[in-house]
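In response to reviewer comment 3 from the previous cycle, which asked for concrete evidence that the modeling workflow produces usable outputs, we include below a single protein chain processed end to end. The sequence was submitted unchanged, and the resulting structure tokens are shown without manual editing.
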Amino acid sequence: MKVETRKVRLSEIKPNPDNPRQISKVQVNRLVKSLQEFPEMMQIREIVVDESMIILGGNMRFRALKETGVKEAIVKIVTGLTLEQKREFIVKDNAGFGEWDMDALANAWSDLPLTEWGLDLSEDWMEPIPDDNKPIDEAGMSETENECPKCGFKW
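The workflow returned the following structure tokens.
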């Protein structure tokens, strides 16, 4: 396998007709806005293509760049992968490995526009999650004091 990174014209890049990921207009519009507000992102996160310039990773970024009128993008050209390896990369690149640490987001990241950056968060994402590991007394009550985040009621 060989990897080369360079800047190319968007017209040289081909969307992947077999991309299994669905891309909604809302997602593309959100990414267009992100790229307009933070264009340096595309210098950090390139589009991955194979030796035929078919996109393996970055179909949504490619569409968003076209919509913003950008003419060039940085690509990572990967040669020497088998068809099976290309398909594996496409799926793994789009799969959501892991889960978000909601406590870390609420405590250290909540002042940032997380949903605008693409995080799919429910309206109540900052509410505390019950700790199932708290000690319970014989009556079935938690031995630690709890407080309702909405009304302040303590139990």
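Strands lie at 2-9, 47-50, 55-57, 72-79. We consider this sufficient to address the reviewer's concern, and the full set will be provided in the supplementary archive.
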